[in-house]
Protein: Biopolymer transporter ExbD
Organism: Labilibaculum antarcticum
Amino acid sequence: MGKFKKGGSKELPEISTASLPDIVFMLLFFFMVSTTMREVELNVDVMVPTAKEIVKLEKKDLVSNIYVGVPMRQFAKTMGTEPQIQLNDQFASVDEIQAFISTEREARKEELRNKLTTSLKVDQYTKMGIIIDIKQELRKASSLKLNYSTRETAE
């Protein structure tokens, strides 16, 4: 029978790094696929008001955003310092809201069109007159699901 050595000092083998590049590329690919880029570049400063009772929207792909706020510095010379409406990536007037809502509906599948929610992201210092005008246009466009974006109050 063979003789077994006991208590021999064995050295631990080095860890193989051959699979390390595969793991790195797999992680890189995962983050590239799962990350979404911002679809709209904001041209207005929007600091949404705070609230205590907040409910998060479940399906964000069924939300159309309307931004209202003071134009950023680079647009202040052309647009002024009064609050402006931004639809997608460009400034708009109140009259263009109905067309915006209809194009947003057309971009969705037919069975999802009645579930479309309009989210108002309005600067906290914006006067209520422009909000009332926007709401009137949304009523004319039959967009009755409305959401006001807020941030949670820090306690």
In short: Strands lie at 44-45, 50-51, 63-71, 84-87, 90-92, 117-122, 146-148, 151-152. The radius of gyration is 27 Å.
